[in-house]
C-alpha cells in the first residue's frame, strides 16, 4: 500500500521550533522524509534541535525569526526559499500563553497574545501562500488549542487572551481553507490539550493540585505525552489528508467531551 504519510521530497517550515511540540514535530517531519527549516527567536536552542535532525540524514537549517515582526518573517522565508527552493508544508506552531482575566491583565499582555498566536500565523502564511498558490500545492497546519472552545476551569490559570487568540486561530484557519482550497492548498488546525513542554513545565506541571484536577476531569486520566501530537501533525501535513479542509482536530484525551 502506498505510504500516504511519506514526505520525501517535501520541505517543511516549523515556527516555534526551538522546543516542545514544535521541536518534536520538526523531528517527525524529518523521520518521514522531509527536509526541514526551523524558525524561532532563540537560535541557540534551534541549533540543538538542528543537531538532532541532522542525525536522520535530512537537510535542515535553523533560522532566527520573530513571527510578530514582518521584516523578520520576510527575511526568514527568503532564507528558506534560497536554501531549498520550495516550501510544501508550513506548521504555524509559535505561540504563548499569558495568564490573566480581562479584569486584571494589561493591554500589553493582551496584545502580546494576539501578536504571537494570531498575527504570527498571518505573517508566516503571508510569505508562503503565494508560492504555494503558484505551485498548486501546499499544506498549512495551525496549532490552536483545545482552549479555543473549552474555557480554563481553574481560577489560578485563567487565560482569557489565550482562549480568545486560539479561537481566532480556528476562525483564520477556516477562512484560509475556503479561500485557498482551489489552489491545491489545505489549511487545518490542531487543538492540543495539556502536553508537557517548556511553556507548561514551569507552570501547569508544577501544580500538583491542578494536575490532580485535570486528570480527574480528563477521560484519559492524564496529560498528553511527548510525541502524541505527531501523528495528527503528520496526517494534516501529508497526502493522507488531501481532501481534509478547514478542520479543527482536538487532541486532548477526550477532555472536551466532559
UniProtKB/TrEMBL annotation:
GO terms for molecular function: oxidoreductase activity, acting on the CH-OH group of donors, NAD or NADP as acceptor; quinone binding. It comes from the Bacteria. Pfam families: adh_short_C2. Keywords: Oxidoreductase. InterPro entries: NAD(P)-bd_dom_sf (IPR036291), Sc_DH/Rdtase_CS (IPR020904), SDR_fam (IPR002347). GO terms for biological process: bile acid metabolic process; fatty acid biosynthetic process. Belongs to the short-chain dehydrogenases/reductases (SDR) family. PANTHER family: 3-OXOACYL-[ACYL-CARRIER-PROTEIN] REDUCTASE, SHORT-CHAIN DEHYDROGENASES/REDUCTASES FAMILY MEMBER. This is Gluconate 5-dehydrogenase. It comes from Lachnotalea glycerini. The lineage of its organism: Bacteria, Bacillati, Bacillota, Clostridia, Lachnospirales.
